[in-house]
Write a structure and sequence with these properties.
heterotrimer, A mainly alpha (299), B mainly alpha (292), C alpha/beta (372), B: 292 residues, mainly alpha, two-stranded antiparallel sheet, 11 helices, 73% helix, C: 372 residues, alpha/beta, Rossmann fold, 7-stranded mixed β-sheet, 5-stranded parallel β-sheet, 12 helices
């Protein structure tokens, strides 16, 4: 292939690569709370906070992009703390619902905020994000989670996830860990929001809806939440899938949109029913299945 | 003022009907069935097809659509929830599988019907209005409120006075104990889904009639409000859902009238949030929440 | 040996000459419309429009030696997909021009890609006043903005009805309806008409009774509504059902036969400023409508604008001397003047926005008629 056609290939699929990275980061932001057994669906709101904060800085100050990103990472974490204190006491689905409520309130807040043009949002945001930045952020998030995993903190989270009351009797301060994970997830989401805003030239409340956070949850679950890199696998698969489907549906002649939705739903259903630990557990399962077959043959 | 009360009660009775089904399944299974809004939507289409293509009168199409909804509910249970029973993560997994199923159903409807908004044909429903006091109430609105009330009473009677109702309450209390007592838990759960989805179907058809609006995304607008209603009313409480539905309808309408329409949804979700933080069991929910 | 080389050289020269004896040049036009997602209803109409236009242009032989080829993709009413589709059009399919995307929100994210990729984009349904053609000199627009349609529509209505005050109802979480509201408010203020109340709703809402009751209590003489068609029909029905007969004028979202289909008799008397006068006797318009009917489609404004988009590109190619490269088309746009289209005589403004006569419609007997 010539250099020019390689460049064309890159340009054609560049946005898909970028969104894979962004969605991976967003999936990780949902995963952080899942890893200690909490389902939080407020991440779209945290993403919005990060996006708006960084865009406002871009328009009103001359701060370097790194500063914008730092603010976008910190601000949602600061909001997560007063949110988490009352809300993390709730169990399971109640926590999920409370965070959904929070997410909607934040979205409606931005819809009504005249300073940022309400629903119109901020447009003509300069494109300051490059694909390498997205992957650097993703790598950073993965690194943080990797370090947590093998450490005392990681074991504490695991214990909380398995059985919270038991963990507490062992002296683990569950509330503090849960809050920390919520704040960490919020910061991932905020960073992703800021990067996305400066990639897609705009910030608008419609982007940060309930549907968006459900997508993030789906990436994490389909990828698998028993390993820290699972959500990224899910995000990669589900972000690339529509592009693959687009090729197929244009050849098969089906209406592209319903097909894509349909396949997303089917994949999710199949994974949740038959592959509960997500796609990332496939290699392990296949290996175990092969080993079992070999042993059966040997016997 | 009177008109706004009528508006609020009308909106509220639709919320209540939708939430009844939602809360029933939650009470029995501790699971949020997010495919409820898809059944809500599909049965509105079922009624539409019956009326438009099979020329059924509305009063016949409604029960057929409700029945279809009930059957769909059993399918939802079989496909999305039953395989997960017994799994430790069944709450979150059930949530996700119901989302998956809802997506599949919405995609199917989109493929078959397209994205445009449809409405029931003009001759199908009464269109006269009455003036009560200073308020305008349409015949249709009265019929809808009456049906919602009837369904609520019917459901309450069923739960209180029939054997099935007793079994449902037993399973809601503790599936293990119920099984020990000889209750076929799986069948009771299927029956609960039938009832829940039948209610959702009724809500969908009435919603479609009430607002001249049947579209593949019609469940989306009610789905989140439904959450606010069941939380406010108390998860698992039927009368709570009804009361909270009406309360939310009135609350939304008076927010528009007195505060400003931009805050309408914010109030609904703000209430949701406050209730969860201050009094998680809602208005009429039981104090003992089952272990996660 | 020597003769073979000469023979080969001659053959090579002959082969090199072949391109100049070329057959029809194919010019690819990429169309990105919302075939799924919230704006799917509009995208469906736009698809009909461009498909008909491409066929009509190719059949008419207006472009000698050039065949137009359509590449149609779904933008999914989503920024991400819009961006991805544009990148494919520009880098993989190598289109000469792009039509679309359907919504202004998607355009704000995707058009900069076209600007960067030096590929002309023709917006055929983006009506946001700012943030479209401002993106750069490769972005052109056929669809009139609300700011071009509403003020004159208001004047006609004022002359006809003579109202003293007004109220506005609009969807505040959608870019299009909020933009429409901004223009409505500015137009009323510019005309010196006091606004007695403003109410909002969310795109997902279906129940407008509370807002309508509140507005009715303030007793305005005139109600302006900025909504998408799904809500428009419901708003109008519910208002009439509440017993409120105030004259209603809608923004661009009302511009669809779906309004009458879904609101029925309640839609009578509703006024809409429009970029497309369906009843116009202009032969270009009549031919377009007949062509759509033959394809089994009842066209709306989006269809007409999408059709016009293709006509404009075709004209640009002709103006550039039957050359279909990206910069040829861009240069050709500057020369498009009073082009005969279903929308009327069309030209571009220096700002690259579109310009043609707008009209005011009123619903009479279940159909749009021109309000004189």
């Amino acid at each position: 292939m010539s250099l020019e056609s390689l460049q064309d290939l890159w340009l054609t699929y560049q946005s898909t690569v970028a969104f894979i990275g962004l969605n991976g980061l967003l999936a990780l932001s949902v995963y952080t709370t899942l890893s200690c057994g909490q389902l939080s669906l407020a991440q779209a709101a945290f993403m919005a906070i990060g996006a708006y904060a960084s865009a406002i800085l871009t328009f009103h100050t001359q701060a370097p992009f790194a500063v914008n990103l730092a603010v976008a990472t910190l601000a949602p974490a600061l909001v997560a703390i007063p949110l988490g204190l009352p809300v993390l006491r709730l169990k399971g689905v109640f926590l999920a619902i409370a965070t959904i409520g929070f997410g909607e309130v934040v979205r409606i807040f931005f819809v009504n905020l005249d300073f940022t043009n309400g629903a119109l949002g901020l447009t003509a945001v300069p494109q300051r994000t490059s694909v390498w930045m997205i992957y650097a952020a993703l790598a950073g998030a993965l690194f943080v989670l990797w370090r947590i995993r093998g450490s005392r903190v990681g074991y504490a989270l695991e214990a909380i996830r398995e059985d919270e009351p038991a963990a507490r009797t062992m002296g683990i301060h569950a509330a503090r860990y849960k809050l920390a994970m919520l704040a960490l997830g919020a910061s991932f989401a905020g960073l992703a929001g800021a990067l996305e805003a400066h990639y897609t030239f705009m910030v608008a409340p419609g982007t940060y809806s309930f549907t968006r956070v459900v997508d993030m949850l789906v990436y994490a679950v389909v990828g698998g939440t028993s390993v820290f890199y699972g959500p990224v696998v899910g995000a990669t698969f589900l972000t690339a899938l529509p592009e693959v489907l687009r090729e197929i549906s244009s050849r098969v002649g089906l209406a592209p949109g319903p097909l894509r939705l349909f396949v997303n739903g089917v994949v999710l259903l199949l994974v949740i029913l038959f592959l509960p630990e997500g796609i990332s557990s496939l290699p392990r399962r296949v290996r175990a299945w092969l080993r079992a077959r070999r042993e059966a043959h040997a016997a | 003022m009177g008109q706004q009360i009528v508006n609020g009660l009308f909106l509220g009775s639709i919320y209540a009907l939708f939430a009844l089904g939602y809360t029933l399944v939650f009470g029995v299974l501790d699971i949020l069935n997010l495919a409820h809004q898809a059944v809500f939507m599909i049965c509105a289409y079922v009624a539409l097809v019956l009326v438009v293509h099979l020329h059924m009168p509305m009063f016949a199409a409604l029960p057929v659509a409700v029945l279809a909804g009930g059957l769909m509910g059993i399918v939802v249970d079989r496909v999305a929830f039953k395989p997960l029973r017994g799994r430790s993560d069944s709450n979150i997994a059930g949530l996700i599988s119901s989302i998956a199923l809802a997506t599949i159903l919405e995609a199917a409807v989109l493929q078959v019907f397209g994205p445009d908004v449809e409405r029931f044909p003009f001759g199908a429903v009464p269109t006269r209005s009455l003036k009560i006091g200073g308020a305008v109430v349409s015949e249709l609105q009265i019929v809808i409120i009456a049906i919602a009330l009837a369904m609520l009473l019917g459901l309450t009677w069923l739960l209180r006075r029939t054997r099935l109702g007793r079994r449902i309450r037993a399973v809601a209390e503790s599936p293990k104990a119920a099984r020990v007592l000889g209750v076929d838990v799986d069948r009771v759960i299927a029956a609960s889904f039938f009832l829940s989805s039948a209610l959702g179907a009724a809500a969908g058809v009435l919603f479609g009639l009430a607002f001249n609006n049947v579209a593949p995304d019609m469940g989306r607008s009610v789905e989140l409000k439904g959450l606010a209603v069941i939380v406010l009313g108390g998860m698992g409480s039927m009368p709570g859902a009804a009361l909270a539905g009406l309360a939310l309808g009135l609350l939304e309408v008076f927010t528009v009238a007195w505060i400003g329409s931009s805050y309408r949804d914010a109030v609904a979700f703000g209430v949701l949030f406050l209730v969860l933080v201050l009094r998680p069991r809602g208005l009429l929910g039981s104090a003992a929440l089952r272990e996660a | 040996m020597f003769p073979t080389v000469r023979f080969l050289a001659a053959a090579a020269l002959a082969l090199l000459a072949v391109p100049t004896l070329s057959v029809a040049e194919t010019v690819k036009i990429g169309a990105a419309f919302s075939l799924t997602g919230n704006a799917a209803a509009y995208g469906a109409q736009q698809k009909h429009g461009v498909q008909a236009a491409i066929d009509d242009v190719n059949k008419s032989g207006k472009l000698k030696g050039v065949t137009l080829e359509l590449v149609l993709e779904d933008d999914g009413t989503s920024k991400e997909q819009g961006i991805a589709v544009f990148q494919r059009f520009i880098n993989r399919d190598k289109v000469s021009a792009i039509i679309g995307p359907t919504l202004s929100t998607t355009a704000t994210a995707a058009d900069p890609i076209a600007q960067q990729g030096k590929t002309p984009v023709v917006a055929v349904s983006n009506t946001a006043a700012k943030g479209i053609t401002d993106i750069g000199d490769y972005v052109w627009r056929v669809s009139l903005t609300e700011a071009q349609v509403i003020p004159s529509a208001l004047k006609v209505a004022q002359a006809k009805i003579g109202f003293k005050n007004a109220a506005i109802l609009y969807g505040n979480d959608d870019v299009f309806t909020k933009g429409g509201f901004d223009v409505m408010k500015a137009s009323l203020e510019a005309a010196g008409i006091p606004i007695v109340d403003i109410q909002t709703f969310a795109t997902k809402d279906r129940d407008f009774n509370a807002q309508l009751t509140a507005l009715k209590a303030k007793n305005p003489d005139f109600l302006m509504v900025s909504a998408l068609v799904e809500q428009a029909a419901a708003i109008v029905s519910q208002a009439r059902q509440l017993g409120w007969n105030v004259p209603i004028m809608g923004g661009n979202g009302f511009n669809s036969p779906k309004l009458m289909a879904n609101a029925g008799p309640a839609a009578e008397g509703v006024m809409v400023g429009t970029a497309w006068n369906k009843a116009s006797a202009d032969p270009a318009n009549q031919a377009f409508i007949a062509g759509q009917k033959a394809r089994g489609n009842d066209p709306d404004q989006f269809c007409a604008q999408a059709y016009t988009g293709v006509l404009v590109i075709a004209d640009a190619i002709a103006q550039a001397g039957m050359k279909g490269g990206r910069d040829d088309i861009k240069a050709g746009f500057l020369k498009v003047k009073d082009l005969s289209t279903p929308l009327g005589k069309f030209s571009f403004l220096p700002s690259r926005d579109g310009s043609h006569a707008a009209a005011v419609q009123v619903v009479k007997g279940g159909k749009f008629e021109i309000l004189q």
